[in-house]
Amino acid sequence: MARYGFIKTKEDIKFLILYALCYLPEPATFEILLDICTWCDDGFGWFEFKEAFDELVETGHLSIADPCLDTTYTISDKGHEALAAFNNRLPYTVRESAQRSALRVVRQANRDAVILTGTQQQHPHDFLVKMGIDEVFSLELHAASAEQASLLEKTFRAHAEEIYQTILHAMTNDYDEKG
Q1: Which of 69, 92, 100, 172 is most buried by its number of CB atoms within 10 A?
Q2: C-alpha dist (Å) from residue 79 to 20, 41, 111
Q3: pLDDT tens, 90-137?
Q4: In this structure, what DSSP letter does residue 26 have?
Q5: Taking the model in full, what pTM does it have?
Q6: Which of 163, 161, 112, 122 lies closest to 145, judged by CA?
Q7: What DSSP string describes 55-79?
Q8: What is the DSSP string of 102-123?
């Protein structure tokens, strides 16, 4: 399968990983970095990315943020030095795409951090689902099954802002008083 993109070599993939990681405010998982980097260029796939990523870890350009967890990575001083030395190696359009992709991931992480959901079983066939947007509003609903509670949580996480707007509109609507 032919791939089209600006990034063709393993070295370019490494620089893209380092470049993308420097835009993230927190350590990132392999999956987050894969998402950012593959979103901005189609010249490589998972296997090429994995090989370049593993080499960056082995050479000390990436550091494991928490050695106990072994799941998130940061750019090391060695990685910053390499990035500074070869910053312009990546084409401008790829750098711009990497910035946009990193910001997309940061926005999503910030959104996910303020959307809260949880379920507690009250009685058999009675699950209390608590949902909310931190410091904006909260909502509690009873569900008849764990599956229904899970669906409520999933739907709320995916559409919290729309649900909030719908409730706000319904509560502030000027209903005609009919006798």
Answers
A1: 100
A2: 12, 21, 29
A3: 888 888 998 999 999 999 989 999 999 999 999 999 999 999 999 999
A4: S
A5: 0.71
A6: 122
A7: HHHHTTSEEES-TTT--EEEE-HHH
A8: HHHHHHHHHHHHHEEEEEEEEE
What are 48-65's pLDDT values in tens digits?
999 999 999 999 999 988
| 25 three-state secondary structure | coil
**Are 21 and 28 contacting, i.e. CB atoms less than 8 angstroms apart?**
yes
The residue assigned the tokens 């006798």 is 179
What is the number of other CB atoms lying within 10 angstroms of the CB of residue 73? 25
Q: Sort 147 into a burial class: Cβ within 10 Å, 0-12 / 13-18 / 19+.
A: exposed
Q: Which residues touch 119 (CB under 8 Å, ≥6 apart)? A: 127, 128, 129, 130, 143, 146, 149, 150, 153
Position 177 scores a pLDDT of: 65
